[in-house]
Specification:
This protein is an alpha/beta fold. It is built from 18 helices and 24 strands. It is globular and about 80 Å long. Bound molecules: 5-amino-5-deoxy-1-O-phosphono-D-mannitol. 5-amino-5-deoxy-1-O-phosphono-D-mannitol (M6R) is lined by residues 294-297, 341-343, 346, 349, 391-393, 478, 602. Residues 294-297, 341-343, 346, 349, 391-393, 478, 602 line the site of 5-amino-5-deoxy-1-O-phosphono-D-mannitol (M6R).
């Protein structure tokens, strides 16, 4: 949550670069925006609440002068989203400006002390404490860098901080702890940012600072030091993402672009097969799997339970990251704990890793290269989905599922080579099934238009496809604000059936059976459950690969290729559900890329 950016160049004006960069991070928060630059030995500051384009229109952010600056987009934690609480924050004589992402847990006691020393606070934020502390240490005679070091020694919590000072006009400094920060090395200046897409237009050469490593940059040099002032030798990495990947590419929204990229994403994720095989060879004896994740990634993990238990006969738990601490006693050295996260920065998941890492083997399935989670675990599988900008996860969810299937398939390879080969060849057909159904996008638009005004949806599925029902409901809630619930089809009669009537839309996921597969053949039971809701008056939309799907008597049917049986269904059925949510959001005149109250990367607990 919150995105920070900093740029320092020689001749290029910083504000247009910062504005462009911060727009790339708007998925991290859109409550307010601000930029500070050093202009003529003064801090120039423009900020306000609202989305970037609105604030830019009002304040002309790109007209600010100066070749060094910091910028921020906010997802409010402490303090209402208004102008005063927007970042950057400045010290009392406006010589220093900072941006911050994270939470300073001990800000209240620090604030009290600073106030007693004469510091005046303008905002209600925890972040403002930082700028006064830096100022205090500079007033005590420390230089800018050392003032930052002394500041972070006093604070508790998570932070990625960028800071500039008019007394150090050729220096931009930054530091992180449990909040993302990446350094970009450009030909015409250097960058800090919460995430790589911010500066991909200028460079794909990056350094990932570790917690409490101080970044000091000028226009042509970056130095990284530890808190004792020792210079560290850091690896420069090249990211194989490009600017185009972080743009809308002619689509109206990132979400639609990302849905459309999915057939290619499957192939890209499959290209990581060898890496997964290699990891599997190093895992040693495993007698239990424990998946840990949040949100959409949790639904990927839950699918993993069906996959691992069916393919490998191995006991598999799935636990929400925020609940993990209550279950961690069951881990041991033969447990493989698998953390699933798109961003690799989710605070709840990071906390769970800290508990699991000394008690079990750890592996993470992550999309963002170099993110915090990748540094905390023993093994990492990168999902290779490319940058995902829309807040609602789509293509990264599919890439997680593919990675989970591959992991299970490789773990089973030695036991059953025939099964391994058959599954790999089936997964390789997934892009074709997705391309086929995308040709029928108009049918989804028609369904979306027809049901957009209803206020209650249920998504039902059994077995392998049940977690996809949960995901369908989450997508709809996130971007259309319609109340939606995902349920195992058989569970409705145990209570929720009471609220079914003609005002409720029920989306039934009914994959065809495959008698030769591991699937438990749930089609007939699902159809019986569908009849139960129909006879209570619900309007039913069926998504099915049953070859006689047209004969099911429901209000609407979306047909999936009949080769997509239960086993494969999680990898294909998600797509019409994503499209359904997307188009309902469009027909309700909402912005699917920026749902209210949400941010893509949840770095608070
Ligand atoms: O980055 P992560 O996968 O760890 O994020 C977990 C959830 O916050 C995330 O999946 C969230 O539910 C998405 N907005 C879903 O669309």
């Amino acid at each position: 949550m919150c995105g920070i950016v900093g740029y320092i160049g020689q001749n290029e004006k910083a504000s247009p670069i910062l504005l462009d960069a911060i727009k790339k991070l708007e998925y991290r928060g859109y409550d307010s925006v601000g930029i500070a630059t050093i202009n003529n030995e003064k801090i120039e500051l423009k900020k306000d609440s609202g989305k970037i384009n609105e604030v830019d229109k009002e304040l002309q952010l790109k007209d600010m002068e100066g070749c060094v600056g910091v910028a921020h987009v906010r997802w409010a934690t402490h303090g209402y989203p208004n102008k005063i609480n927007s970042h950057p924050h400045t010290n009392n004589n406006n010589k220093i400006a900072i941006v911050h992402n994270g939470i300073i847990e001990n800000h209240e006691e620090l604030k009290k002390e600073l106030i007693s020393e004469g510091y005046v606070f303008k905002s209600e934020t925890d972040s403002e404490t930082l700028v006064h502390l830096i100022d205090k240490f500079i007033n005590k005679g420390l230089n800018f860098q050392n003032a930052m070091i002394e500041t972070v020694k006093l604070i508790k919590g998570s932070y990625a901080i960028g800071a500039i000072s008019i007394n150090y006009p050729n220096e931009l400094i930054a530091i992180r702890n449990e909040s993302p920060l990446v350094v970009g090395l450009g030909d015409n200046g250097n960058f800090i940012a919460s995430d790589v897409p911010a500066f991909l237009k200028h460079t794909n050469k990056v350094i990932f600072p570790e917690d409490n490593e101080l970044v000091i940059m000028n226009s042509d040099n970056v130095t990284i030091k530890d808190l004792n002032g020792n210079i560290l030798d850091k690896k420069v990495e090249t990211i194989d993402w490009n600017e185009e990947m972080a743009q809308k590419g002619g689509y109206d929204h990132f979400m639609l672009k990302e849905i459309n990229e999915q057939s290619v994403v499957v192939s890209d994720t499959l290209s990581g097969k060898k890496d997964i095989e290699n990891i599997v060879s190093k895992l040693g004896n495993i007698n239990k799997i424990c998946f840990v994740a949040c949100g959409t990634s949790y639904h990927g993990a839950l699918t993993g339970k069906y996959v691992f238990e069916s393919f490998l006969n191995i006991s598999t738990d799935v636990i929400y990251s925020s609940e993990f601490k209550y279950f961690s006693n069951v881990l041991d050295e033969n447990t493989l704990t698998i953390f699933v996260s798109q961003s690799g920065e989710t605070a709840d998941t990071l906390s769970a890793i800290k508990i699991a890492k000394n008690r079990s083997k750890t592996l993470a399935i992550v999309n963002v290269l170099g993110s915090s989670i990748t540094r905390e675990v023993e093994h990492v599988i990168y999902t290779k989905a490319g940058p995902e900008i829309a807040v609602a996860a789509t293509k990264t969810y599919l890439s997680q599922l593919i990675s989970i299937y591959l992991l299970a398939i490789y773990l089973s390879k030695n036991r059953n080579n025939e099964f391994y080969e058959n599954m790999i060849s089936q997964i390789e057909k997934v892009p074709t099934y997705i391309n086929e159904l995308m040709l029928n996008e108009d049918k989804i638009k028609e369904i979306a238009r027809k049901y957009k005004s209803y206020s209650a949806f249920f998504f039902l599925g059994r077995g392998f496809i049940y977690p996809t029902a949960l995901e369908g409901a989450l997508k709809l809630k996130e971007i259309t604000y319609i109340h939606a619930e995902g349920y195992p089809s058989g569970e409705l009669k145990h209570g929720p059936l009471a609220i079914i009537d003609e005002n409720v839309i029920v989306v039934v996921l009914a994959p065809s059976e495959n008698p030769e597969s591991f699937s438990i053949n749930s089609y007939k039971d699902t159809i019986n459950n569908m009849e139960e809701v129909k006879s209570r008056g619900a309007q039913v939309i069926a998504i099915t690969s049953y070859e006689n799907g047209e004969r099911i008597n429901v209000n609407d049917i979306f047909q999936i290729d009949n080769q997509v049986d239960e086993l494969l269904s999680p990898l294909v059925y998600l797509v019409p559900l994503q499209l359904l949510s997307y188009y309902i959001s469009i027909y309700k005149d909402l912005d699917p890329d920026k749902p209210r109250n949400l941010a893509k990367c949840v770095t608070v607990k």
